[in-house]
Specification:
Blueprint lengths: L12 H11 L1 H20 L4 H21 L8 H20 L2 H23 L2 H7 L3 H5 L4 H11 L9 H12 L18 H29 L4 H7 L3 H28 L3 H14 L14 H15 L1 H14 L6 H4 L8 H4 L6
Length: about 350
């Protein structure tokens, strides 16, 4: 009987990382920073709904993949569920380490899986055709743009101008080399702005919801009443809670950018509404609080106090509102996005309220 070779236990990663930093300082610097961010973020989120939701998501996807394998004809595309699981694992690791662009790239892959599953739901014969397709067919009939066009024509997938088509376009813009910046994370380690640090989790749970819908659609067509159907119908509670939490931050981040765009266009009313809409909808700030007949100094002092009390994305949105009400540029540190790159001078002129 052949004995298995003894594999020595590797030294702790911190030890190896220290040696890399000494022998290969340029490489060691980036690995050390990623490790530091991962450790810090993991500790911060240990009891947070984000990690609870992430764990529940992976468990449920494993269960659904097993159910697909056991249920013809779902077993033919079980590997797509497993591929999406790998995408989420990649995205979660990247989100913790601070590589936001990697998270976005992984979620683009999840979107393509989502669209394929929806396409197969609408036309089940497309599934078999795709599985046996040659490269020409894959580049033609099953190219992502062709699949999205079919879904849009059928009125499914939220593929309107402000829906999934716009989302996919944003992901594509981020993955291709462009001369102009986007609001999405740059390649490499993302900035330490709170919005950028959390952006990966927005993406993960937003695309979880969309993928879940696509999985459910396919099961309803090919295997209704199956074990896979039961798993897909049962909403994972922590996943839902994580989406609700991260979606609030995403909405407020987007509102700040939209408000600054409208302010630059000279539409102060639209800029104000861009922020007041979500702030009021979340129960953070009532419209009556910013009536124009109020003493402005008192109003701004009250809003600033509320911004400090709320903190986080809500606090940044309230602070941005103060700038909009005064028709002043919203500083980049509030937006968390490089909306001022076209005017570098203006970046340094925004003062905190």
């Amino acid at each position: 009987m052949t004995e298995r070779p003894v594999v020595p236990t590797p030294p702790p990663y911190d030890t190896t990382l220290g040696e890399i930093a000494t022998k290969h300082p340029r490489l060691g610097a980036v690995l050390t920073e990623a490790h530091r961010r991962r450790a810090e973020m993991s500790a911060t989120l240990l009891e947070d709904v984000r990690l609870k939701g992430a764990n529940e998501l992976l468990i449920r996807l494993d269960q659904i993949a097993q159910a697909f394998h056991a249920q013809p004809p779902l077993n033919r595309v079980a590997f797509l569920i497993e591929r999406s699981t790998s995408d989420f694992e990649t995205a979660l690791e990247a989100a913790l380490a601070g590589y936001g662009a990697v998270t976005f790239d992984a979620m683009r892959d999840v979107m393509e899986i989502q669209f394929l599953l929806m396409d197969f739901s609408l036309t089940p014969s497309n599934m078999e055709e795709w599985l046996s397709a040659d490269d020409k067919t894959l580049r033609g009939k099953f190219a992502p743009v062709a699949v999205r066009q079919r879904l849009k024509a059928a009125g499914v997938g939220n593929l309107g101008e402000n829906g999934a088509s716009s989302d996919y376009k944003g992901h594509s813009m981020a993955i291709h080399v462009r001369p102009h910046p986007t609001a999405l994370p740059d390649k490499g380690l993302s900035s330490l702005h709170p919005s950028h640090r959390d952006m990966g989790f927005w993406e993960i749970f937003e695309h979880t919801r969309a993928l879940w819908g696509a999985i459910g659609m396919l099961i309803q067509v090919l295997a209704p009443g199956s074990e896979a159907d039961q798993l897909a119908e049962d909403d994972p509670l922590h996943v839902v809670a994580a989406w609700k939490e991260t979606n609030k931050d995403q909405i407020l981040f987007t509102a700040i950018i939209e408000a600054e765009i409208k302010r630059r266009e000279g539409d102060l009313l639209a800029a104000t509404l861009a922020l007041m809409g979500p702030l009021h909808g979340m129960g953070i700030l009532a419209p009556a609080s910013i009536q124009r007949d109020r003493d402005e100094r008192v109003l701004y002092a009250e809003l600033l106090k509320l911004a400090r009390e709320k903190g986080g994305s809500a606090g940044r949105a309230i602070a941005a509102l103060i700038f909009v009400l005064q028709d002043r540029p919203i500083p980049q540190h509030l937006a968390g996005a490089r909306i001022y790159r076209a005017d570098e001078k203006q970046e340094s002129e925004g003062d905190a309220p």
